[in-house]
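Hey L., structure's done. Input below.
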Amino acid sequence: MDKRTAWVVMGVSACGKSDIGTRLAQALGAPFIEGDRFHPPENVAKMSAGIPLDDEDRGCWLQALRAEIERAWQTDPVVVLSCSALKRAYRDVLRGDGGDVRFVHLHGDRDLIAQRMAARSGHFMPVSLLDSQLRTLEPLQPDEHGVTLDVRELPQRLVEQVMATRGAS
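Output:
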């Protein structure tokens, strides 16, 4: 039986993927992969200019993330990845073949997320792209392994909620 597990912390920009992903990785004793670091320069330039990415733009990025999951599994049976994973098709790429890929969807109210985006500095994703991401977002389906959590919760509480689901399938 394949014991490899990847936890993908997903959601729109500024929902807390990196923070919760880092905390979850620490709780699991697992490596953390920051998905934004794998965007090709062209994607970053588009987003910085306020242009939403399309499926084609995201394709090579998602494939690179799946390859990074596979690479991490060579030394660690559990890995945590932050990635927007907005559509089911994107999550299918991350699932790939083999291993148990589970999703942690950080969900929040548009106004709260917009406030978070406006408050952070030095990130390539402008607030103007939030509505595009929300339109693209497809919630987890019943047959997808994962949990949807409310970003109004304290970060430690969110990690506790994920840890409580570890035995569920």
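Strands lie at 5-10, 32-34, 78-82, 100-107, 146-150. The mean pLDDT is 91.

-- N.
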